[in-house]
Every structure is written in C-alpha cells, then in structure tokens.
Amino acid sequence: MKLLTVDDSKTMRQIIQGVGATLGYEVLEAEHGLKALEVLRKSADEIAVIMLDWNMPGMNGLEVLKIIKASDDWKHIPVMMVTTESEKGHIIQAVRHGAIQYVTKPFSPEELANKILESLGMGEL
Amino acid sequence: MSEIENSQELDISQKLIECLKVSVIDTLSTMAMTETTIINTETADAFNLSFQIGGLIYLYGNHEGMIAISGDKSVIQFVISNIVYNPEGEMADDDIMDGVSELVNMIAGGMKSKAGLTTDAKLTPPIAIVGPSCKSQWKTFRPTYVTTFKTEAGNFQVHASV
Ligand SMILES: [Mg+2]
After folding, report:
1. Contact residues of B toward A, CB < 8 A
2. So what's the ipTM on this one?
3. Does residue A89 fall inside a structural domain?
4. What separation in Å is there between the alpha carbon of B7 and the centre of ligand 1?
5. What is the CATH T-level fold of the domain B3-161, as seen in this structure?
6. What does the alpha-carbon distance between residue B93 and residue B97 come to, in Å, rounded to a whole number?
7. Interval B34-47: pLDDT, tens
8. Whole-angstrom Cα distance, residue B77 to residue B96?
C-alpha cells in the first residue's frame, strides 16, 4: 500500500516522503487538488492514507476532502489534514467532513509518523 | 484612534511579536531539528530588507501586517536542507524558494495560533525572493521589529510589522 500527499509545497512533500520511507511506505505526490483526483482515479486501490494540505492554489484542502468523501470509490480511504491552519473552526469543519486526523505544522517527524500509523489503525512507533 | 484603542493595538502587536519569536524557535527545532537562539530584537522605522534569500507573507483581515524571513543563502539553505533531511547537498534555487516560502508560512501560521488569532486574520500565500543581492520594502506606518536569530550555520533575521 502507498500514501498520497497533496501539498503545493515541494518541501512539505519531501518531508512526507521522508516520513513515509521511515515507515516503509511509498509516497505518491500531487501538487494540487486536481492532480490528487487524477492520482486517485488511477491508483485509489493502492492508497492507504491521504494527507491533505489546506491552503493550495485552486481547490483548497477542504474542497478536495469533500470530493473524496462524496465518492463511493474513495470515501473509505482515511484522510489526514496536514496544515498550518490551527484555528478551531477549521479543525471542526475538517472533522465534520470526514477527516480522521488533523496535524498542524510545524510537526516533528515522529509526530507525523504516529498520526499516520493511527490513521492506519496501528499502534505508535 | 482613542488612546485606549491605541494601547490595545500595541498590546496585540507586542503579543504577536513575542509569539512569532517562539514560533521561529519551535519551527526550527521540530522541523529542522536545529537549535536556534535569539541574539536581539531591534526596532526599525521602515520595513526594509537587504538579503540573498527572503520569504514574505502578509497578514490581513481583522489584523494586518507583514512578516519576513531573510538571510544569506548559506544560512537559509542550511535550515531548509535540514527540514528536508538533506543536510549535505547543494540546493537548486527553485527548491530554496519553495523551502523559504514554506518556512515563512509555518512561522507566521505558528504565530497566529500561539497568539490565538481568529479565522478573521488570514495569511496570503507566501512570496519567495532569491538573488545574489536583493532589497525589498513594504510601506507601513507601524514600527518594524527585526529579530536576529543564531544557528550553527550563521544568523538570519525575521522582520515583522504587525
Ligand atoms: Mg500550502
């Protein structure tokens, strides 16, 4: 199984690649929402967890989340929000629309790794 | 503006500056696993930057201001390469621009959450500037606080007028 990171920042995608590698997962990347939907259309069967940035050009993370959770083919995939938006209102909105985890930047690699494992239904590192 | 309103504005501004400093140290220790210390904070009467690498982000909505991180290429590259676990390699300008954007986004986002600003205070997408020698200016009536931070690779600065 693979992880999918959707983030407009290459730096952030590289960090998530690093954390995924530590956990033994290949990480697929999308730099915006439309690209993420394209990856899902092709590879949804292989994706164990999706990590979504909030602020991206074009569709924001919440809009992408809504599309994923409205799709019968994709709604079973756990979605984590990984974002600088730490406002309570944002967290509530994301959870209400089906996000399973909410990670705010900055985070330590261990913190992200543990949140990924939790999303996969596994214990901590 | 009445004197009371004026002093409340000043209080928020001071709080934001203090939260920003903590956010910089937190961001570098958690994301870059790099220890950073504050050398000093000075007040400037203009938001003028002179640097090799800069990242700027604008705060708008119910509270307005500009936040910037700037420094020499060697220092900013050191920080970014630690964030992406690539401590040795020479980085391309595009990667440095992406990194400094994400860095200023994270420190400003951290400031916002530490200060408890509401959703009505928003951040624009960041702006990154890379060059051998750049200057930039933002027009503001407010004072600018310039904090110099020390890393093992050298110093960088964070400008804030909030
Ligand atoms: Mg983003």
Report:
1. 26-27, 30-31, 80, 83-86, 95, 98-99, 101-103, 105-106, 108-110, 112-113, 118-119, 123, 125
2. 0.88
3. yes
4. 34
5. Chemotaxis protein chec (3.40.1550)
6. 6
7. 999 999 999 998 99
8. 7
